[in-house]
Write a structure and sequence with these properties.
By secondary structure, the chain is mainly α. The protein has two domains: about 50 residues, no CATH class; about 70 residues, Hect, E3 ligase catalytic fold (2-Layer Sandwich), CATH 3.30.2410. About 55% of the residues lie in helices and about 5% in strands. The chain has six helices and four strands; from the N terminus they run ααααβααβββ. The strands form two sheets. It has a two-stranded parallel ribbon with strand order 1-4. Strand 2 and strand 3 form a beta hairpin. The longest helix has about 30 residues. The radius of gyration is 21 Å and the shape is extended. The mean pLDDT is about 85.
């Protein structure tokens, strides 16, 4: 995990680093071949020099695109469950907070909830989940 790591005891001070390195090692060793194939294929299509100037977040936005999101479209295409409804106090607080977000914060919220920061061309009515069309849900 780390040069000379076998001789370094895990302590409260270095515990976080140890856990991060262990998780990274366990995740990466299981998908090394797939990741290498994906990267090779990507660079066959896109010149590496063109994407090297972006960090991971910027590259995702370049590839997936972004848009100013239409808050009224988002609200009109949101589904409520568990006793919530558009006029529920918690939902009013939620939308009041989202209204104060800038566009990037809204896209990050969308990515956290749906797994993507991309808004379909057709708007929020066309959001898709892993098994087909899926509305934003609270």
């Amino acid at each position: 995990l780390k040069p000379g790591g076998a001789n370094i005891p895990v302590t409260e001070k270095n515990k976080k680093e140890y856990i991060e390195r262990m998780v990274k090692w366990r995740i990466e060793r299981g998908v090394v071949q797939q990741t290498e194939s994906l990267v090779r294929g990507f660079y066959e299509v896109v010149d590496a020099r063109l994407v090297s100037v972006f960090d991971a977040r910027e590259l995702e936005l370049v590839i997936a695109g972004t848009a100013e999101n239409d808050l009224s479209d988002w609200r009109n295409n949101t589904e409520y469950r568990g006793g919530y409804h558009d006029n529920h106090i918690v939902i009013r607080w939620f939308w009041a907070a989202v209204e104060r977000f800038n566009n990037e914060q809204r896209l990050r919220l969308l990515q956290f909830v749906t797994g993507t920061s991309s808004i379909p061309y057709e708007g929020f009515a066309s959001l898709r989940g892993s098994n087909g069309p899926r509305r934003f849900c609270v």
